[in-house]
Amino acid sequence: MSTEGRSWGGCAVPADLLYDLEADVWVRPGADRLTLGMTDVAQTRCGRLVQLSWKPPGTRIRRGRPLCVIESAKWVGPFRSPVSGVIEANNAQSFDADVAIANRQPYGAGWLVEVAPSAWEAERALLVDGEAAWEHYRQLIDSEGIRCFRCAE
């Protein structure tokens, strides 16, 4: 896993990932599944995570539908899927051990869900690469005065 890319206002934007900018979700393609997580900007906007409610593996989902519900110090809402498919795994075990794992490692150990995509070719076209995400987030960070942080251990 690489997290090389750029950062702005303390917010990392790895170049090797794909992004659903509307949902603030990153996508890491694998051989037969996609790993999904919340962007650095998303975890900062949420604040320290408090609890997640997961949909179980085996659940069929459609693009735009919730994969889990996130509750944080500032916000409660859905983590929306950027793709259609079947949930293969969730990271509930890591979050049970450390609920703020995504606040510390949003692109690593703080991943949320793995999905086997069912319409990858069509839905891949709706995602942007790291360069386009960088431009989007740089402007957003400046316009909203966002400064990313990592929760302390």
- Stretches with pLDDT under 50, minimum 5 residues: none
CATH structural class:
Mainly Beta
Note the quaternary state here: single chain
The CATH topology name reads: OB fold (Dihydrolipoamide Acetyltransferase, E2P)
Average pLDDT works out at 91
Strand order, largest beta sheet: 3-4-5-11-10-7
- The number of helical elements comes to 5
CATH superfamily: RNA polymerase II/Efflux pump adaptor protein, barrel-sandwich hybrid domain
* CATH-defined architecture: Beta Barrel
Biggest sheet details? 6 strands, antiparallel
Output the structural class.
alpha+beta
**How many domain units?**
1
Distance between the termini: 22 Å
Q: Helicity level, as a percent range?
A: 10-25%
Strand content: 25-35%
Q: In one word, what is the shape?
A: globular
Q: Quick one: how many beta strands? A: 11
Structure description:
The protein is of the alpha+beta class and about 150 residues long. It has one domain: Beta Barrel (OB fold (Dihydrolipoamide Acetyltransferase, E2P)). The chain has five helices and eleven strands, in the order βββββαβββββααβαα. The strands form three sheets. The protein has a six-stranded antiparallel β-sheet. The protein is globular.
